[in-house]
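$ ./design --mode recover --in tokens.txt
reading tokens...
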């Protein structure tokens, strides 16, 4: 069943390229359309008027602190490793002692570790997650407009940008809060990856309608190029292929998902060594010109 009570298709939509489903919460169908100007950018349609109810699932792990299942515990271990990997990556591009803002802080795992090296703050609209982050003595805002302008050496969004409804306004607001030589660091699923092509409508990283935008490497460069930014570096997120493959096998109702997924994830990662199209990519972006200083 197609989602109801939804927005009309905007003029930027081209013909749909794929029909998929919300496998996590509602079971409703959604279509992916090409953007008419940004090559490689796909858009979810229709967009429900109330997106909050699509996050109401016990399977939505990103805002949970206490694992309740075996998979939940494994997820927490992988997340802890991933947080430290992210901090090491950011350290290659942002000097110690600088200001870092995280959008979509969740319960504050990244900021808590990052605070050992930088002055940190975050934005988290979810009240429960924000409360847990505040309990960790972190500085967390509810909304982006509460953050002072031009104050940050880096702004990071770990799998967050694809959730944001008003993409253009948000990017402008982010850049207004970034120093001239600051870095914008994004982690995004890559719909050109092997696992995306293999699973097609079952690919868990489409995650409709929570994911409103679906990026390729070309679309990221194209989109942010219109804002005067260039891509300084890209890094694959190898663990994502395994997690996404496991969820995708579950969505296919494969009873052997836990056995099959590691091989699918490995296949995707091995293929990415040649195609340079991993399941997820971290992009490090900076402004063009002398003030942007393109080096790490």
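writing sequence...
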């Amino acid at each position: 069943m197609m989602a109801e009570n939804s927005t009309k298709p905007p003029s930027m939509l081209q013909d749909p390229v794929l029909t998929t489903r919300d496998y996590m919460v509602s079971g409703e169908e959604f279509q992916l359309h090409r953007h008419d100007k940004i090559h490689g950018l796909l858009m979810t349609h229709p967009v429900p008027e109330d997106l909050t109810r699509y996050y109401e699932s016990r399977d939505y792990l990103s805002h949970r602190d206490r694992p309740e299942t075996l998979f939940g515990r494994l997820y927490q271990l992988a997340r802890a490793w991933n947080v430290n990997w992210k901090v090491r990556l950011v350290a290659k591009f942002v000097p110690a002692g600088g200001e870092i803002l995280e959008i979509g802080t969740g319960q504050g795992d990244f900021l808590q570790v990052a605070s050992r090296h930088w002055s940190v703050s975050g934005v988290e609209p979810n009240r429960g997650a924000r409360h847990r982050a505040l309990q960790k003595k972190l500085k967390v805002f509810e909304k982006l407009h509460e953050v002072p302008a031009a104050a940050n050496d880096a702004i990071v969004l770990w799998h967050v940008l694809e959730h944001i409804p008003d993409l253009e306004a948000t990017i402008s607001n982010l850049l207004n809060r970034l120093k001239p030589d600051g870095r914008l660091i994004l982690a995004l699923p890559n719909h050109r990856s092997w696992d995306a092509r293999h699973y097609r409508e079952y690919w868990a990283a489409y995650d409709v309608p929570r994911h409103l935008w679906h990026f390729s490497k070309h679309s990221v460069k194209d989109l942010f190029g219109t804002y005067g930014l260039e891509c300084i570096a890209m890094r694959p997120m190898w663990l994502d292929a395994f997690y996404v493959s496991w969820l995708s096998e579950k969505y296919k109702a494969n009873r052997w998902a836990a056995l099959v997924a590691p091989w699918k994830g490995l296949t995707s990662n091995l293929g990415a060594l040649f195609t340079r199209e991993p399941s997820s990519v971290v992009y490090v972006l900076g402004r063009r010109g002398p003030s942007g200083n393109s080096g790490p």
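exit 0
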